[in-house]
């Protein structure tokens, strides 16, 4: 890790009570620590709870249990001015750049919304700030008078990023910010995130299901399965030496741009369906699809522990 943690997530839980005695454990005892200036990638299949984790950290959802410490303060206990101040320091970029922008507002007003709420700029200063932000994300100042439907998906995501940057946050949660974009545009948006981080000293929680893209932006990566973290290490170490069988299967699905290597490579194809989070398996949640499952995997949940320096996993194999 780079330095002191700006964010500490301790035993975070987010459960949804669906009635009839059913409880969906979307996030179950999540522990993450993110250093100032770091990019932490959170990956896993759809439905693993990674987006719910992001929304609970930023307090779009109230936590069921555990705590989120941002700059040493418990986010879920903040009220009034303290909560308003927290919202200024942590912002979110959403997955769908069209659904997250108000179609009735001009781009200038969308970007300046945070400035208005927090009383940071008005009049000439507000207009100047919007122009600066549009330039920072690779758009032109004349775009301020247009509406979201006049832009492409990639441009709309840039508008979403400009809106998040408007109030100069320290921390940005990017929730699958490239998955709704064309492949040709994805790399441009990832490069924009990296450029802005370097210029503004930002810290990111970057949520995605595409491990290949996450590698390019993340310092460390956490892998989630059915609401639980199964592996955390640096992005180089994760690719060179994945320990958890689930991580190994995810990495084996990434194509390698070398026909010779690709032809001889062995894919790990997982058997069976992803279990329902309403009725997860006993013990290790991955055991019903794991090619290396043992009897003890059904008996008890493996402890999430450091098995090599800086490399954590939850698996009975270690």
From TrEMBL:
Protein family (similarity comment): Belongs to the ABC transporter superfamily.
Protein name as it appears in the record: ATP-binding cassette domain-containing protein
Domain ABC transporter intervals: 7-251
Matches recorded under NCBIfam families: oligo_HPY (TIGR01727)
InterPro entries recorded: AAA+_ATPase, ABC_transp_ATP-bind, ABC_transporter-like_ATP-bd, ABC_transporter-like_CS, Oligopep_ABC_C, P-loop_NTPase
GO molecular function terms attached to this record: ATP binding
Keyword Cell membrane tagged: no
Coiled-coil residue windows: none
Key words, A-Z: ATP-binding, Nucleotide-binding, Transport
């Amino acid at each position: 890790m780079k330095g002191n943690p700006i964010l500490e997530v301790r035993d975070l839980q987010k459960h949804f009570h669906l009635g009839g005695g059913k409880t969906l454990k979307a996030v179950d005892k999540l522990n993450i620590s993110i250093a100032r200036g770091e990019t932490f990638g959170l990956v896993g299949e759809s439905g693993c709870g990674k987006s719910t984790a992001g929304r609970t950290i930023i307090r779009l959802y109230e936590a069921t249990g555990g705590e989120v410490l941002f700059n040493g303060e418990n986010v879920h206990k903040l009220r009034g001015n303290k909560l308003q101040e927290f919202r200024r320091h942590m912002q979110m970029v959403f997955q769908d750049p069209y659904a997250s922008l108000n179609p009735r507002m001009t781009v200038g007003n969308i970007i300046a919304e945070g400035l208005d709420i927090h009383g940071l700029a008005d009049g000439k200063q507000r207009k100047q700030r919007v122009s600066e932000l549009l330039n920072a994300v690779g758009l032109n100042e004349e775009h301020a008078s247009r509406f979201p439907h006049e832009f492409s998906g990639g441009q709309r995501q840039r508008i979403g990023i400009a809106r998040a940057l408007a109030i100069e946050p320290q921390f940005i949660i990017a929730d699958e910010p490239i998955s709704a974009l064309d492949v040709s545009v994805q790399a441009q948006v990832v490069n924009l995130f990296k450029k802005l981080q370097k210029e503004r000293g930002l810290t990111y929680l970057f949520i995605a299901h595409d491990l290949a893209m996450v590698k390019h932006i993340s310092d460390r990566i956490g892998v989630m399965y059915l609401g639980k973290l199964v592996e955390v290490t640096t992005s180089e170490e994760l690719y060179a030496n994945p320990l958890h069988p689930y991580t190994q299967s995810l990495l084996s699905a990434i194509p390698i741009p070398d026909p010779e290597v690709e032809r001889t490579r062995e894919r790990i194809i997982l058997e069976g369906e992803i279990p329902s989070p309403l009725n997860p398996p006993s013990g290790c949640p991955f055991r019903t699809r794991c090619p290396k499952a043992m009897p003890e995997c059904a008996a008890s949940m493996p402890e999430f522990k450091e098995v090599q320096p800086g490399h954590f996993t939850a698996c009975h194999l270690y």
